[in-house]
Design goal:
mainly alpha
């Protein structure tokens, strides 16, 4: 029985191939300026949280996606907010640590499509 040789592909359009590789490494994160970043006052006598659940969810999603420790997550979120031109405060790592206990981060995973 003969062993099949693997197929060899030749790239004929190098500019399109190079552009596809660059596009594959791009990252797009949308930040809506209308997002409620700071938590509204609840009217209860205890100290209200400073950051909204959406802000904590965003930070913890970045943590999970990039497999970062909490301090690096705070730095990356600060960088993303700065690049987006938003002057929002960033939750401290201790705030993220405390709030992640009560907030479950669920990131939906899209099934790969068949080619």
């Amino acid at each position: 029985m003969t062993k099949l040789l693997p197929a060899r592909y030749r790239t004929t359009n190098w500019s399109a191939y190079s552009a596809a590789l660059r596009k594959r490494g791009s990252l797009l994160i949308w930040l809506d300026r209308e997002t409620t970043w700071l938590a509204p006052h609840a009217g209860r006598p205890e100290r209200p949280p400073v950051f909204s659940e959406g802000a904590i969810q965003f930070c913890l999603s970045i943590k999970v996606l990039f497999k970062l420790p909490l301090r690096q997550t705070a730095g990356m979120v600060a960088s993303l907010l700065r690049m987006a031109g938003l002057d929002w405060p960033v939750p401290d790592y201790s705030t993220l640590c405390r709030r992640q206990k009560s907030l479950a981060v669920q990131i939906p995973i899209a099934e790969p499509t068949a080619r």
